Structure formats: C-alpha cells, structure tokens
Amino acid sequence: MTKDQYLRMVEQTGEEIDWEKCPPEMDDFPDSIHTALNIYNSLGDRIFSDVGFTGKDFTNLSFLYDNYYIEDYQKDWIFEIMMFVERENIKASQKAIKAEYDKIKRK
Predict the structure, then answer these.
(1) Is position 35 within any domain?
(2) Of 63, 64, 77, 89, which shows the fewest CB atoms inside 10 Å?
(3) Which residues partner with 55 through β-bridges?
(4) Is residue 99 part of a domain?
(5) Nearest to 44 by CA among 67, 60, 21, 64
(6) pTM of the model
C-alpha cells in the first residue's frame, strides 16, 4: 500500500490518520538518505551461487564519496545508512535461499 492509497482509505472510512501506520514515500526522507541509497546502489554486488548475496563491494566507496561531494562529517552517517540497507538485503537473500533449499528438500 502506498501513502496515497492509505490516505484515500482513511478518508473514505472517516478514521483519524495514524502516521505510524502510514507508509513513507521517498520524498519523506531527507537528501542524505537519497544520497546514501544512490551510492549504495552504485556499488557492485558480491553474489555466490551457494550462499547468495554476501554484500556490496566497497572498493570504489572513496571514489563515490568524492563523486557525490560527501564531506568528512557526513561519511559516517552515509555509511551507517548503507550498512542498514546491506543487513536487510543479506537477510532477504538468506531467507530466499533457505526457502528454495527447503522447497527442494521436500521433493
């Protein structure tokens, strides 16, 4: 459900808007989040057939920091955001591989 769909649903039902349940859109996040996601998505993936996605290749990180004009005081925050996304992507990959493994095991 998108933010727009949620707001239309609440309007139709006449309920009070619960901002905790309202899904965010990219425009709701500050520019630093957009920058961190752009840098993260510019990095190469490390994928192995037997274990799946193991994370990003951070070899070009300093080049990307320079390319996006990231100041020294911003680097820790940007990196922290990227690590959060990385953990979530690794968990999702592990979950998908486990599901496929369990599916094969059942046959």
Answers:
(1) yes
(2) 63
(3) 46
(4) yes
(5) 60
(6) 0.78
Domain that holds residue 50: 25-106
Q: Is residue 12 part of a domain?
A: no
65 within 8 A of 75, measured Cβ to Cβ: yes
Could you give the percent of the chain with pLDDT greater than 70?
100
Q: Which two tokens stand for residue 99?
A: 């599901």
- Confidence (pLDDT) at 53: 92
17/6 Cα distance (integer angstroms): 9
Sign for the CA dihedral angle at 43, 46, 52, 53 comes to: negative
Kindly report, residue by residue over 11-35, the tens digit of the pLDDT.
Answer: 999 989 988 888 899 889 999 999 9
In the chain, DSSP assigns E strands to 44-48, 52-57
Count up the domains in the chain and report the number: 1
